[in-house]
Specification:
The chain has one domain. It is built from 16 helices and two strands. Keywords: Amino-acid transport, Membrane, Transmembrane, Transmembrane helix, Transport.
Amino acid sequence: MTIVSSDRKYRRSPKTPLLPQKHDDHDSVEVGFNGASFSGAVFNMSTTIVGAGIMALPAAVKQLGLIPGLIMIVLGAMLTESSIDMIMRFTRASKTASYSGLVGDAFGGPGRSLLQLCVVVNNLGMLVVYMIIIGDVMSGTSSEGVRHSGVIEEWFGQRWWTARFSLLLLTTLLVLAPLISFKRVDSLRYTSALSVALAVVFVAITAGVAIFKLMDGSIAFPRLMPKLVDQASFWKLFTTIPILVTAYICHHNIHPIENELIDPTQMKSIVRTSLAFCSSVYIATSFFSFLLFGDHTLDDVLANFDADLGIPYSSFLDDIVRVSYGVHLMLVFPIVFFSLRLNLDGLLFPFAIPIAFDNRRFYTVTAALMGFIFLGANFVPSIWDAFQFTGATAAISVGFIFPAAVALRDTHGIATKKDKLVSWVMIFLAVSSSTAAISSDIYSIVSRDKLAGS
């Protein structure tokens, strides 16, 4: 792949015949690596998509009702496919090899830096939240004065090594640190496959419990349409849009995965396969969770598995669900971290050689990022509020506003009427969902403060 001069100036590969000169932001540094396989790329792409957002989808479907909720999940997948297709087509036209290079080709250095900043903010916030959830699952958490024990604490009691700080430190050193040390995203294909399998385990258990309880008559079929009792309930429907729009965000890993493929022309099929699989997982999770818990479905459905399910071996199944999901997030972590490190390095060192070729820079950036994420998860629990805002802006920008802006800019004159129509739709949905999410967050924070002050 040829790199245009405007993109080349940001990334210079070392001048050695033993190393490939193919990519500006990410190059293979292992001689003898022949390229990633189709299946490995599908696992990595699917793992990028299915993160913590899967646990919020059942609550979104509860707000919308079963039929509108499931339709919105399908539409979200279709919209995501359109945005990724535009990214890939405009990338080929601009002869770049990275998302930041594409945006830089359309909007220059400031546009490139803004995209990289959005990816850094989005991924950093996401990884802090992942570590918070991992800590909650293993060590437990307190909410409104109620203590929810974690699985490790339940199994072994309160020890110094079952405390939140200790468990997260052990997880960081023994699990996360080795996984984030890989310089190729394809090296994570096996852990990504396991991550995908664990997501399927969660769906299978939820489906099995829901079907069992439906057959014995202890639960009823869920609402098909939203429950609108007042004006507040109507406006609350719009707060589900950010969850549905951002459920498929994976755009920051499109190029790293494509750049390592044996046959890059397979990328379109890889994206379609991954989106089809993930949308199926999302639909099954949302349907069976809402069927199982009905109007008692919590904002994080994982919290519903902290109580008696009303079936034999309930405690055992609760533990399997929580442990499998905690391990799933540990395995998603390095995939999200990969693009975080790549974009932060591009933001800080835009004219340096690719980070994979510079061991000192690679490990320094890696250690600094991991340290910040670890401290954030341990000492700044209120960071949830901050990242509700950044997630509603940075994630939506990366997934929809930037692809739409590149298509509307149309530097190389290849945009079709359909591209421009879809771009305007994406911008409308992105802006409206961001506004709804931020307004809802501000309202909830103000309401909480009023209740605390009364």
